[in-house]
Design brief:
The protein is of the alpha+beta class. It has 3 helices and 6 strands. The strands form 3 sheets. Strands 1-2 form a two-stranded antiparallel sheet. A two-stranded parallel ribbon has the order 3-6. The protein has a two-stranded antiparallel ribbon with strand order 4-5. It is elongated and about 55 Å long. The mean pLDDT is about 85.
């Protein structure tokens, strides 16, 4: 569904909603620069899937205030590299996994290492 189809669906189903049109935002800091009517209700969504494209997840958190990072332990194994998007899905930045963990921890974010398989 495109944006207009969603608006039409909400209207057709008689679901209360308000629309605030604004410039594109890419993170919560960008959104904080925009006057929105309900800042306490801001949410951050992350849509992810597994590597076999069988399971999809939508994670929604309130304003991204505190996020816990879950990282697969296998990224720490040789060669110890990880590829991440630099807030733009047209590029990949390759880092040593340990360096990424250091950056994340430096900003006060908790990390839990997990084993995916």
């Amino acid at each position: 569904m495109d944006k207009q189809a969603i608006y039409d669906y909400l209207k057709q189903k008689n679901i209360w909603h308000e629309i605030t049109e604004h410039k594109a935002v890419y993170n919560m800091a960008d959104l904080a620069q925009i006057a929105v009517p309900y800042p306490e209700a801001d949410a951050k969504n992350l849509f992810i899937r597994d590597d076999k494209k069988r399971n999809y997840y939508l994670i929604t958190v309130k304003s991204e205030i505190r996020v816990k990072v879950f990282l697969d332990k296998t990224f720490l194994e040789a060669p110890g590299l990880i590829g991440v998007h630099p807030n733009d899905n047209t590029a990949t930045v390759w880092l040593r996994t340990q360096d990424l963990l250091t950056i994340i921890k430096k900003h006060g974010t908790k990390i839990e290492l997990v084993r995916s398989k």
